[in-house]
Amino acid sequence: MYEITYSSIVKKDINKDDIKDILSKARIHNSANGVTGCLLYYNKQFIQILEGEKEVIKDLLKKIEKDERHFNIRILAESEKEDRTFKKWTMAYKELSDSTIQTLNESLFENNFLTFSELADKPTRVIRLFWEKAQRLITDNNRL
Ligand SMILES: Cc1cc2nc3c(=O)[nH]c(=O)nc-3n(C[C@H](O)[C@H](O)[C@H](O)COP(=O)(O)O)c2cc1C
């Protein structure tokens, strides 16, 4: 099992229909190819975690990199791993607002279980934690 986390900058004129299109195509392709993951949208940026077989993920990333709806794709982390984090999600999606980030930050930093250095070093872990917290805020798993 392989996992890649990247960030990218959203193209200026992107709208809700573009996001719907990305997600509907992604979910069809991903379920046919054993890909799972999450996509976060915050502050004009995407952060995506993709998980699946290594070849499949590398090929998919090449395709995503060419997508003109975003640019400046930066790989934040990639690694082999045993299990999927997003087993049930062909592509989970959440748009984060400042207030959500605030809530998430507060819970992330409770009990000091996450330090600022970890934030910089382990982006995937941080996003997973974000995601666990964010799930509380999601009413419908598969829709915008
Ligand atoms: C931020 C972002 C994330 C995407 N994630 C996926 C994904 O997880 N799976 C996928 O198949 N396509 C994803 N896409 C869409 C692909 O770039 C591509 O448009 C789509 O797979 C359709 O490709 P096709 O026209 O060759 O069928 C993503 C695009 C963007 C901009």
Protein model, in words:
This protein is of the alpha+beta class. It has a single domain, classed as Alpha-Beta Plaits. 42% of the residues lie in helices and 27% in strands. The chain has 5 helices and 5 strands; from the N terminus they run E-H-E-E-H-E-E-H-H-H. It has helices spanning 16-33, 54-65, 98-109, 116-121, 123-134, and strands at 2-10, 36-42, 45-52, 70-80, 92-95. Strands 4-1-3-2-5 form a 5-stranded mixed beta sheet, with helices on both faces. Strand 2 (36-42) and strand 3 (45-52) form a beta hairpin. Helix 3 (98-109) packs across helix 5. The protein is globular. The site of flavin mononucleotide has 16 residues, from helix 1, strand 3 and helix 2.
Can I get a quick summary?
With 144 residues, the protein is α+β, with helices and mostly antiparallel strands. It has one domain: 2-Layer Sandwich (Alpha-Beta Plaits), CATH 3.30.70.
Task: Describe the secondary-structure layout.
Layout: E1 2-10, H1 16-33, E2 36-42, E3 45-52, H2 54-65, E4 70-80, E5 92-95, H3 98-109, H4 116-121, H5 123-134
Parallel strand pairs: 2-5
Antiparallel strand pairs: 1-3, 1-4, 2-3
Helix pairs in contact: 3-5
* Mean pLDDT over the full residue set: 79
In the sheet with the most strands, the strands line up as 4-1-3-2-5
Q: How many strands, which pairing sense, and closed or not: the largest β-sheet?
A: 5 strands, mixed
Distinct ligand kinds: flavin mononucleotide
Low-confidence stretches: 111-118, 137-144
Order of helices and strands: EHEEHEEHHH
- The first-to-last residue Cα distance is 28 Å
Looking at the structure, the CATH topology is: Alpha-Beta Plaits
Q: Could you name the CATH class?
A: Alpha Beta
